[in-house]
């Protein structure tokens, strides 16, 4: 079983092996020989050897440690700081929810590096807390971070918000959103601007069930509420001549401001990047060994968490795959779960309607992943190492998953495993537990430390929380004192 996996034809893999073989460093194992022991040999050689090897591997993967500094060039202009500041205030202001009790920051909190503070989002009817104590009806999935999202060619757990050009900065082929928006937001300059039109219309996230009217009506209502706040009017007048000339604040202005704030949330200068730029002391020996494991069989993480080309060094192929994540469903929810027991999430099938997309989720971009409180689309794991172990031993992970680490209301229902196992990606179905314990630790160290930009740590983001917001509505209570999880 292992063998067929190791020799799996893969254009990219073959190319990498070839180049490495040509440089005399690495011979791809096309036999029953396990690939991994080579890494042990690497350990025995001098530090210099592993650095040479890793530098070469990174250059093959297109990792040059300079993606962050390229941001403004990709945007084609400097960030508009005044507009970004307006966007920051809006991001934290419950005025954007018709129910006035939630904001973007309610689900994307700075205290959790702009991820969700829960395994599954809680939207409307929350208790104002962002942290483990957040309470209210659960939605369907957890909110991924918005840090670095400006680099993504598509958004959401199933990539259903997409730049057809495979480049969020390029609208020339249109931005595809689910209906009713469709392609209608394609004249905006960046995918994040289009995305910012949608959370406010989502009933369970921000809009609530009482307002009568379609998405456009919801957005007009919000824009007119914002227009009535004099500080927002002044701010928008400074950024947009049509508002200065007396015109109303429109939702497009709001969306542009929010996206501009998101542009300030680029945090892609991690130890790996410093290392790629030539500072060989930026990573520890375990991280370096872990990096080589990440980019090779049998761990083969790079097969889905890619860095080349349109991936913009974000560690995702931005495609959806089924990897059999344990299905959990809350006891109290305002979302409609899938399957006969209403305890499943069919993943990409929900937006494409194609049963072939069942259980598929977008490979998660991995930068700064260690700062998350939970992992996977439903936060089924609360420890990074378990989310990685799951990839290597899907069946075992499913069998041993007790859900005990989850809060009571998320332990009520557990969706079935068997169909999910059958439909899982070949790499998920083949156990890849061939890593030794030490190797596994190295792999975790790489993902945990080398990919973490210290500026994306919750403490480094605290300054972004406004003391008050222009609407005068209460800013959420961001819990910075939640006890760290006991993971290892
Ligand atoms: C109720 C919680 C909630 C609120 C409020 C919320 N989001 Fe989200 N956000 C989510 C969830 C859940 C997802 C993933 C949804 C999915 O994939 O089905 C998401 C996804 C995103 C993404 C895509 C990230 C990626 O990795 O692809 C962006 C960007 C984003 N939200 C921005 C915003 C902005 C801007 C606001 C405010 C206007 C906002 N969100 C409000 C829960 C929320
Ligand atoms: C077959 C494609 C594939 C391969 C190979 C793969 N992953 Fe993933 N990975 C995914 C998908 C898909 C998700 C999201 C699954 C979900 O949320 O349901 C994911 C999620 C993750 C997460 C959780 C991220 C988060 O924000 O919750 C981590 C960590 C991760 N992968 C690390 C790895 C590592 C390390 C390897 C190598 C051992 C690896 N992956 C191999 C597809 C893959």
> Whole-number average pLDDT?
91
What structural category characterises the helix and strand content? Answer: mainly alpha
- This entry's quaternary arrangement is single chain
Q: What would you give as the CATH superfamily of the largest domain?
A: Cytochrome c-like domain
Highest-level CATH class of the largest domain: Mainly Alpha
Radius of gyration: 23 Å
Topology:
Layout: H1 2-6, H2 11-22, H3 37-44, H4 47-60, H5 71-75, H6 81-92, H7 104-107, E1 129-130, E2 154-155, E3 161-163, E4 175-176, H8 191-195, H9 203-207, H10 215-227, H11 230-239, H12 241-244, H13 251-263, H14 271-276, H15 285-294, E5 320-322, E6 328-329, H16 349-352, E7 360-362, H17 384-392, H18 394-400, E8 413-414, H19 418-423, H20 426-429, H21 437-450, H22 458-461, E9 477-478
Parallel strand pairs: 1-9
Antiparallel strand pairs: 2-3, 3-4, 5-7, 6-8
Helix pairs in contact: 4-15, 6-13, 15-21, 17-18, 17-21
This protein binds heme C (2 copies).
One heme C (HEC) is lined by residues 96, 102, 104, 106-108, 121, 123, 139, 141-144, 146, 149, 152, 155-157, 192, 195-196, 199-200, 205-206, 258.
Structural write-up:
- It is a single chain.
- The chain has 488 residues and is mainly alpha-helical.
- It has helices spanning 2-6, 11-22, 37-44, 47-60, 71-75, 81-92, 104-107, 191-195, 203-207, 215-227, 230-239, 241-244, 251-263, 271-276, 285-294, 349-352, 384-392, 394-400, 418-423, 426-429, 437-450, 458-461; strands at 129-130, 154-155, 161-163, 175-176, 320-322, 328-329, 360-362, 413-414, 477-478.
- 36% of the residues lie in helices and 4% in strands.
- The strands form 4 sheets. The chain has a 3-stranded antiparallel β-sheet with strand order 2-3-4. The protein has a two-stranded parallel sheet with strand order 1-9.
- A hairpin with a 5-residue loop joins β2 (154-155) and β3 (161-163).
- α4 (47-60) packs parallel to α15, α17 packs across α18 and α17 packs across α21.
């Amino acid at each position: 079983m292992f063998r067929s996996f190791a020799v799996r034809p893969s254009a990219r893999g073959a190319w990498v092996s070839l180049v490495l073989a040509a440089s005399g460093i690495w011979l791809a194992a096309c036999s029953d020989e396990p690939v991994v022991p080579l890494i042990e040999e690497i350990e025995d050689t001098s530090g210099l050897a592993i650095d040479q090897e890793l530098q070469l591997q990174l250059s093959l993967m297109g990792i040059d440690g300079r993606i962050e500094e390229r941001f403004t060039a990709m945007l084609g202009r400097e960030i508009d700081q005044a507009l970004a500041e307006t966007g920051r205030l809006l991001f934290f202001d419950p005025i954007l929810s018709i129910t006035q009790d939630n904001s973007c920051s309610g689900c994307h909190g700075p205290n959790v590096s702009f991820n969700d503070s829960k395994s599954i989002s809680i939207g409307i009817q929350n208790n104002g807390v962002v942290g483990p104590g957040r309470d209210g009806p659960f939605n369907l999935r957890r909110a991924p971070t918005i840090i670095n999202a400006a680099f993504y060619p598509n958004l959401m757990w199933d990539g259903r918000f997409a730049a057809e050009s495979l480049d969020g900065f390029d609208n020339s082929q249109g931005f595809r959103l689910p209906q009713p928006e469709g392609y209608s937001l394609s004249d905006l300059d960046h995918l994040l601007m289009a995305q910012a039109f949608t959370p406010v219309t989502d009933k369970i996230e921000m809009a609530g069930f009482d307002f009568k009217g379609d998405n456009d009506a919801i957005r007009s209502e919000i824009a007119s509420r914002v227009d009535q706040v004099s500080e927002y009017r002044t701010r928008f007048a400074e950024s947009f001549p049509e508002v200065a000339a007396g015109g109303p604040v429109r939702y497009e202005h709001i969306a542009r401001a929010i996206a501009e704030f998101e542009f300030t949330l680029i945090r892609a200068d991690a130890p790996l990047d410093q290392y790629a730029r030539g500072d060989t002391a930026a990573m520890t020996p375990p991280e370096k060994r872990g990096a080589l494991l990440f980019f090779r069989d049998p761990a083969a993480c790079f097969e889905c968490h890619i860095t080349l080309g349109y991936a913009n060094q974000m560690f995702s192929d931005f495609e959806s795959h089924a990897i059999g994540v344990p299905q959990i469903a809350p006891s109290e929810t305002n979302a409609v779960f899938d399957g006969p027991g209403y305890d499943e999430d069919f993943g990409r099938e929900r937006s494409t309607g194609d049963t072939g997309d069942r259980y598929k989720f977008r490979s998660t971009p991995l930068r700064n992943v260690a700062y998350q409180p939970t992992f996977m689309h439903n936060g089924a794991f609360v420890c990074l190492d378990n989310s990685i172990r799951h990839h290597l031993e899907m069946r075992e992970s499913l069998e041993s998953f007790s859900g005990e680490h989850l809060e009571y209301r998320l332990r009520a229902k557990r969706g079935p495993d068997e169909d999910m196992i059958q439909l899982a990606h070949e790499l998920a179905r083949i156990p890849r537990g061939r890593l030794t314990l030490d190797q596994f630790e190295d792999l975790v160290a790489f993902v945990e430390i080398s990919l973490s930009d210290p500026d994306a740590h919750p403490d480094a983001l605290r300054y972004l929380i406004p003391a008050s917001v222009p609407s005068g509505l209460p800013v959420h209570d961001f819990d910075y004192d939640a006890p760290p999880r006991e993971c290892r």
